[in-house]
Amino acid sequence: MKALIIGAAGFVGKYLAYELKSSGWDVCGTRLPTESVSLEIPVKGLDILDVAAIKGLLKKINPDCIFHLAAQSSVAVSWKQPALTVDVNIKGAVNLLEAVRDMDKPPKVLLVGSGEEYGYVLPDEIPITEDITLRPGNIYAGTKAAQGMLGQIYARAYGLEIIIVRAFNHIGPGQTDTFVVPSFCKQVAEIEASGGTGTIKVGNLDAKRDFTDVRDIVRAYRLLIENGSSGEIYNVGRGEAIAISGILDKIIKLSDADITIEKDPERMRPSDVPVIEADISKLTACTGWKPEVPLEETLRDVLNEWRG
Fold first, then answer.
1. Which pTM value belongs to this model?
2. Strand runs (DSSP E) across the chain, as ranges?
3. What are the angstrom distances between the C-alpha of 70 and each of 82, 94, 111?
4. Which of 63, 148, 161, 222 is disulfide-compatible with 108, CB 3.0–4.6 A?
5. Residues 135 and 195 in one domain
6. Structural domain of residue 45, as residue ranges?
7. How many structural domains comprise the chain?
8. Same domain? 131 vs 223
9. Do 140 and 200 share a domain, yes or no?
10. Strand ranges (E), 145-223
11. Are both 123 and 201 inside the same structural domain?
12. CA–CA–CA angle 5, 298, 125 (5° rounding)
């Protein structure tokens, strides 16, 4: 099986490349022309806003399947740069789907969406199934919801094999500190390095999110491209929500430092969704997947990376 990872230079890309290679796949990837990345797979420069470049690359590589990871994936950044988020997440996805449609033998495509798409879920909708009404609560979520809808339209209208995932919060070493877990871990590591006493600045600690190790996430992606049904949407997550305050408590317990907590208005989002928790029964029924890496192990790995 020959796979192309669009956006291989990102956080998830290296883990997916390793997962696929370990399973015996022939793998190549793309990066932005301005990015540099060291991976044990061939990586080509590609701007997903250039549809002609996508078409040329696909015809040259002729993959059996495509994992579309390229995205502006930060909720915080989406509030600050909404136009960029729309361009990358919606226009980029359409460009890819048009390029796939133009091929003599279109490959399977896995479009990666987000659990943020569900937005303002009602109390009786938790855990969240794939068929509830979407009520996106931020700009990033809105763009991912649009991407998923477009994927279903292309699957129905053109007979393309498109599988759509809504991935909930995934964490692990290598993630930038624009996300909550590495942000906390970085601050703890800095406090430890500066004498062992200090303050962590935080945003909303009350929100509950469904966190999964990235190594489990990419295994689900592989299983879905192998077993998923075209036009279908699958939740990918642990299936259990935890408050951000609980995540912070677990990280602080991994340290001997004397740490205080301070709420920072700059870290508060314009709006926030109280609880996001996945129902993963559809994914499990389709693939047999279940999370294997304990949350505490992931948090320790992330903290140790920042300590380094």
1. 0.94
2. 2-6, 26-31, 43-45, 65-68, 108-114, 162-167, 170-171, 197-202, 208-210, 212-213, 233-236, 241-243, 258-263
3. 16, 12, 10
4. 161
5. no
6. 2-170+211-236
7. 2
8. yes
9. no
10. 162-167, 170-171, 197-202, 208-210, 212-213
11. no
12. 80
